Amino acid sequence: MMDRPLLISQLLWRGEHVFGEKEIVTRLPGAYHRYTYAEFGVRARRLAQALARLGVGPGDRVGTLAWNTHQHYESYFGVPCMGAVLHTINLRLFTEQIAYVINHAGDSVLLVEPDQLPALEKIAKDLHTVRAYVVLGDGPVPETSLAPVFGYEELLAAEDGDLAWPEFDENTAAAMCYTSATTGDPKGVVYSHRSVVLHSLNLALHGSIGVREEATFLPISPMFHANSWGIPHAAAMQGTTLVLPGPHPVADDYLDAIEREGVTHAVAAVSVGVLMRDALERRNRDLSRLEVLWLGGQAPPLGLIHWFRDRYGVEVPQGWGMTEASPLATFTAVKKRIRDAGQEAVDRTLVKQGLPMPGIEVRLADESGAPLPWDGESVGEFLLRGPTVTAAYHDDPRTAASFVDGWFRTGDVGVIDPDGYLQLTDRAKDLIKSGGEWISSVELENALMSHPAVVEAAVVAVTDERWLERPLACVVVREPVTTTGLRAHLAGRFASWQLPDEFLIVPEIPKTGVGKSDKKVLRARFAEPASRQALRAPDGS
Amino acid sequence: MMDRPLLISQLLWRGEHVFGEKEIVTRLPGAYHRYTYAEFGVRARRLAQALARLGVGPGDRVGTLAWNTHQHYESYFGVPCMGAVLHTINLRLFTEQIAYVINHAGDSVLLVEPDQLPALEKIAKDLHTVRAYVVLGDGPVPETSLAPVFGYEELLAAEDGDLAWPEFDENTAAAMCYTSATTGDPKGVVYSHRSVVLHSLNLALHGSIGVREEATFLPISPMFHANSWGIPHAAAMQGTTLVLPGPHPVADDYLDAIEREGVTHAVAAVSVGVLMRDALERRNRDLSRLEVLWLGGQAPPLGLIHWFRDRYGVEVPQGWGMTEASPLATFTAVKKRIRDAGQEAVDRTLVKQGLPMPGIEVRLADESGAPLPWDGESVGEFLLRGPTVTAAYHDDPRTAASFVDGWFRTGDVGVIDPDGYLQLTDRAKDLIKSGGEWISSVELENALMSHPAVVEAAVVAVTDERWLERPLACVVVREPVTTTGLRAHLAGRFASWQLPDEFLIVPEIPKTGVGKSDKKVLRARFAEPASRQALRAPDGS
């Protein structure tokens, strides 16, 4: 067979040539922007030419601090297709973490939304590798202390798009994304052209979310989160009409876009699904063309699944994945036999995390890494292997702890039933998922224990109506503390949304047999808000 | 990303572990055989153990002369997963060609249906590499002069299936298939594990035939024809219920299987679609569960497409491909815009050969190989490139003529419209497709011209109700000839179905500007049976 590499430029080739007339639509303030895949392809090449003119060469990293827009989408292809590496930076990171990931990735050029300039100006002096800032949007470049600074549209206007994409090894780095760690700085995952192409094929399969020509997809999942779950790449390959929600979107913006553009498939974090439900409760909408709302990032409650199905006839599948797996590892395709068995059987399946995608090998492992049976009862950690799973964290000594015998340790714990459905029951890693973003409980505990009045601290996840999970801090103290005082102590080191809402003063932290904090006990004891009432630290002044 | 190879054993892993309860059903004389993918996986490993015991090692070729059965399906996985190469031999080849392909491939073991033994016995003395014959079926091994000979089921019964598939480079040869050549012996195409896995993903995509868990597929396309178009491999990956039509199937057998097993998707050559229509005209059937009849190998007439749609609500898409492309290169997915425009627009699309699959690059080329525009008017040859397209014919000096600048020359000629749909208008190669099988016009011409009475000969395709195309021979003679005499002259060198039904005696063969036979003129002149009547060679005695 021909030795043809799997390259992202081939996904773009199909979008441009086979589906050149299909549209990419972006909600922008005041208006919707729209153009075709044919126009998109020319602009992606112009971007590559402009970046080359700024000195970007093969292997160089180009960072983005950007919303889900057509310009960000252009960088998804323009950067890797020229042989450079797209580093999508999470806008919600704490400012110091943004500086860390830019330096760690060694970004040479940053593509930045105008609204992100103030944050970037604060850390610019600490950025050691950035040679140029390019401001997105189509207005004039705002007044800024960043230098040298360029306007995105001006740069593109100076190029002709007459460029043949180079060919190179399919294992060449294409993109990178950082994920929160249990302790310390974020950890980087580097995607290859090969992994992106294989992941795109998986997303377009029957038995997956099924990116396809006849659908209109709204990727609400941020493009700075694990390739926006792969939707943008798969959409170009399949000629799928894309609707991008633009800057600072809120639930009503998503619903506007769904109504207006006839979105058939929306893809979002579970917490966003909750916000959309709330917005729909406040104001009914015409969702008649919406068929599927894929909720991921964590397990959607069955009540939410039912709500969308019963009110709007919208199917709510889920997927399980992670930045390290491109991200999709499993998807809740309901087998025909189960569907034929009726609604109850379907419901029992929909709350599970799904079947392994092609190419993804799953091992349910005991503590030594040895395989456990798929009997729906044996509880173990899920290990993953496959060409779309990372082999290492980028230049990071913490890699060793996350791999065993060539398998990636996901840190998620659960069972696999005889039908092959994974179900998560716990999380081995001390992370809390709030509003689709990770919070490290260990980092919060370390910071709390540096407070002079705190003897010991444990932070666990508690259920939250809006954010699905929120951190709850339990502290043992040697002298009186207040909520205000503890929050102030943490405030300088964490983004505000990462701070616990509640601080409980407890006489002791329960321990496991080996002397670790027994978080299972804490989670169970304080699951209900009423159980926490009496122990709350006073507000303070 | 992990350096994990794309291996056929992973397709099997998914079938066995994620869809272990799904069924594989085979029509056998007198009864249907059925078992699950879990059982299938064990038997594929037993087959590998048995072949290893017969001395088959990595890289060795194992030939099959077999129908579409569960045993043939076991070889589709057992042979390549152990690192050996599956050579599926076309039962319809002329006996001498069968000997040629076995010797050329260097098959070490042959898996043979009982009904193929007589043909094989005739050529056994000419087979230089075969070390063992294994007789398929579950009866006792018939009396045969072949040696050493083993019974398939006896061999499997002696093994325990306790085998871990080896891992190796994804470019390792997995399978091979020979295709008819314009002149001379068949040409071999070698598939790799990588190409088979990528092709399987393509078959399971939205916008393709869509192999999926909830469907029941009947691959009528023989398993000795280009991987049965990839259905068997994709089915294991997707956990698709498979119904295999077994030995010597006729149209009513397919229809029995469709009715009885609730087949949702059938896959066949256009000529078989015609036979199924005729059978349905004779006897109505319940086809209510049949959704799609994929007809390929050549273009299905619009009348046939309409017939299945109007009578049974069955959709009839087509694909274009060839042994050299695994085989699928394009598929007639109808774009949403076209579907929305109504039946007439859909019909105009359904007669085209479709859109390029992901990973398949198509070039419409002029005679120098330079690209022509996709305007629906410029006529050129279709060139293909991609990881599922062969780079060469196996050990064959004719390779050079079929490739230009790294592109495969398909020999098919036509246009590409601005929507990306290919449409074939002619065939550059002198081949005729009759009942789904190729016939070389050049070979027939050479043989005819060796007849003492024949001065010149040209063979062209004419339309046939049943076989879609049949060869028509036009001869210029120096003395009287008869149809019987000419057929007898050819009979020893061709299979009977390859012989022309009609021989026309013409005063001269029209020529092109460069002095070649102008077959376009002949095809046009003799398209209608009435135009041939007066020129027919007398029957003879």
From TrEMBL, chains A, B:
UniProt keyword list: Fatty acid metabolism, Ligase, Lipid metabolism
SUPFAM superfamilies: Acetyl-CoA synthetase-like (SSF56801)
Domain AMP-binding enzyme C-terminal, first and last residues per copy: 443-516
Domain AMP-dependent synthetase/ligase residues, every copy: 19-393
A Pfam family per the record: AMP-binding_C
InterPro entries per UniProt: AMP-bd_C (IPR025110), AMP-bd_C_sf (IPR045851), AMP-dep_synth/lig_dom (IPR000873), ANL_N_sf (IPR042099)
Leader sequence residues: none
GO molecular function list: ligase activity
Keyword Lipid metabolism: yes
Family statement drawn from the similarity comment of this UniProt entry: Belongs to the ATP-dependent AMP-binding enzyme family.
PANTHER family reported in the protein's UniProt record: ACYL-ACTIVATING ENZYME, BUTANOATE--COA LIGASE AAE1-RELATED
Protein name: Long-chain fatty acid--CoA ligase
Lineage: Bacteria, Bacillati, Actinomycetota, Actinomycetes, Pseudonocardiales
